[in-house]
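quick one, 160 residues, struct below
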Amino acid sequence: MLKEINVIGISFAVIVAASLTGCASNSAKQDAAGPAAGINSSGQVVDSSKVEAGTGRAVKGINDWEGEISGTPAKGSKFTKLQIGMPMKQVTDLIGPPTDQGSYITGKAFIPFYFGPDKHRYEMVYKGLGRLIFAGGSIGDFSSGNLIWIIHNANEGGYR
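---
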């Protein structure tokens, strides 16, 4: 019995090591292939709709909210006034209403008995500035949330 458990443990360790090696080589391939989708070689966002989470700079913001900033702000951008963790109302008070906006649910909405944040996302698009992504709480409340991702894009068209 002990020998059988040891074999299972070793097999599990080999599978985990192989998975990690695969992840490392995928990351190396992505780096060798060039910049991430939607971002040019200078690190500027050229297509906000193609930028993926995790490709920006990780930031810790107000009240320990964790978020991300992608791209570089345009000169005089209103987005430089913003901080990760700001509530949606504070953001619109600071920089005004968006050109377009919308919401969508996340996978966390389907976890039974999950009462934490980020059950839905709310996206605001500002023409010539970029996009702001907010993490919201309960599934019925699509009008609030905290800023978790700033995507700077001076070429933003203004619509989702």
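The longest helix spans residues 2-33.
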